[in-house]
Specification:
Elements lengths: L1 H11 L5 H35 L5 H47 L2 H6 L2 H16 L4 H23 L1 H48 L1 H6 L5 H5 L19 E10 L2 E11 L4 E5 L6 H8 L10 E3 L2 E2 L5 H6 L1 E4 L10 H6 L7 H10 L3 H5 L18 H15 L3 E5 L7 H15 L3 E5 L3 H5 L3 E4 L2
Helix pairs in contact: 2-3, 2-6, 3-5, 5-7, 6-7, 13-15, 15-16
């Protein structure tokens, strides 16, 4: 009963156009069936003429069949076009209603549901619901119209065959009704699977930088059988060391961001990268991890042109803390473990302690097993940043790149995070992009990018 109510509720969406919509659909199907009926009648008469060896009346038969087919085709196309127009209008109404409903939902709905789930409902579920006006409604009415159109001629021509056809249709209807619950269950499972797939896709797109840098995050691609399409070329042997920039220039969108920059950053020393907004500090960090293409013989690490280093090996030796920390919809424990899949639970907790995140994690409802909501909406900015630092701690790479890691923090959070950063950069080749003096002061050196 519930599904029939939903069905008729969708039909009411058509409003005053519903009678014309149903009339166009019915006449369209009648024309379709009548076309096949006239062709069958024509073939039957030809076979009868051939059997008796007389073609008398063939001209009248041809004229009648041609006229009937022209009328049937006209009905089929005219009312078919009208039916399609109203069906598309119904689809548009459903989509508009979903958008209006989405805009009226409270904010906690978006906090509790993944963006991918919402997108899936807007795309897949709306499309499935809209099929009521097209394929689903026709699947219900087409067999009925076929019986009505064919049954009268069949009763006239062969009553026994007509009775058999009615019985077969009744049996078919009973069998279909038995499988409807299973089909509904399968459709629901398919919808949930699509929603999860869209969630993973959204995580992959939004966390693309993490997927390239952290090996654990790259597993998301393996989950739907895709591989990172970065170049996997060069020697596998690589010893991190001093970072050198040799007349590096780079731009995009027709605008040059970095112009002829040369610098050396010593191994196991931390350097604060400073400069005005838009001078290319963030771009420089992304060039070092090859998120942007780099010209040959421009950037060297450990005396090696980074283009000659296998990109996976290069990134395995770099820990990256970006401006915006991306979280995947999983537990806090697994979000930290993305930095190093081989890390144990103890390693994860030790990394969290070093990042000054352990105490606040234990204060969450499920501790380390608390599921991070879409984009980390259930965590504060400072908490998200400390988990990002914990990822870098658990990765324990010899090179550390931090891009505006404390730019969005208040003073209270920054104090704890600064202490964590000091521990993190100790003994590493670190480049730290920052604006605040306190962030700059604890670095060994400063480099002005202009």
């Amino acid at each position: 009963m519930r599904y029939s109510k939903i069905f008729f509720r969708f039909l009411k969406i058509m409003g005053r156009a519903l009678p014309l919509f149903l009339f166009a659909m019915i006449i369209h199907m009648v024309g379709d069936n009548f076309l096949y009926l006239t062709l069958s009648y024509f073939v039957n008469k030809l076979m009868d003429m051939a059997q008796i060896g007389s073609m008398e009346g063939i001209n009248e038969l041809l004229i009648t069949c041609i006229a009937a087919n022209v009328i049937a085709l006209a009905i089929f196309f005219v009312f078919g076009a009208l039916y399609d127009i109203y069906a598309k209008r119904g689809n548009a109404v459903v989509q508009r209603m979903m958008i209006e409903k989405l805009l009226k939902l409270p904010m906690d709905y978006f906090d509790k549901h993944h963006t991918g789930e919402i997108v899936s409902k807007l795309m897949n579920d709306a499309d499935t619901a809209s099929q009521i006006f097209t394929s689903r409604l026709r699947r219900v009415t087409t067999p009925l119209m076929s019986v009505i159109v064919y049954i009268i001629p069949m009763i006239i021509m062969c009553p026994a065959l007509a009775i058999c056809m009615v019985i077969i249709n009744i049996v078919s209807l009973i069998i279909n009704n038995r499988y409807i619950p299973k089909m509904k269950k399968s459709a629901k499972e398919t919808s949930i699977s699509k929603s999860k797939l869209v969630q993973k896709f959204m995580d992959t797109v939004n966390g693309r930088d993490y997927i390239r840098i952290y090996p654990g995050a790259r597993l998301l691609l393996d989950q739907y059988n895709e591989e990172n399409e970065e170049q996997m070329q060069g020697d596998l042997e690589f010893s991190p060391g001093k970072i050198e920039l040799r007349n590096v220039s780079f731009g995009y969108g027709g605008k040059e961001v970095i112009n002829n920059v040369s610098a050396e950053f010593e191994e196991n020393k931390s350097t604060a990268i400073i400069g005005q907004t838009g001078c290319g500090k963030s771009t420089l960090i992304k060039l070092l991890i090859r998120l942007y293409p780099v010209l040959e013989k421009k950037i060297y690490i450990g005396g090696r042109d980074i283009n000659s280093i296998d990109i996976k090996i290069l990134r395995d030796n770099i820990a990256y803390v970006p401006q915006e920390t991306h979280f995947f919809q999983d537990t806090i424990r697994e979000n930290i473990r993305l930095g190093n899949l081989k890390s144990t639970d103890t390693d994860v907790e030790e990394a969290a302690k070093l990042a000054n995140a352990h105490d606040f994690i234990l204060g969450l409802p499920d501790g380390y097993d608390t599921v991070v909501q879409d984009g980390g909406n259930n965590l504060s900015g400072g908490e998200r940043q400390r988990i990002a630092l914990a990822r870098a701690f658990v990765k324990n790479a010899p090179i550390l790149l931090m891009d505006e890691a404390t730019s969005a923090l208040d003073n209270n959070n920054e104090t704890e995070i600064q202490a964590a950063i000091k521990k993190l950069i100790n003994g590493k080749t670190a480049l730290v992009v920052a604006h605040r003096d306190i962030t700059i002061d604890f670095c060994d050196e400063k480099y002005q990018l202009s």
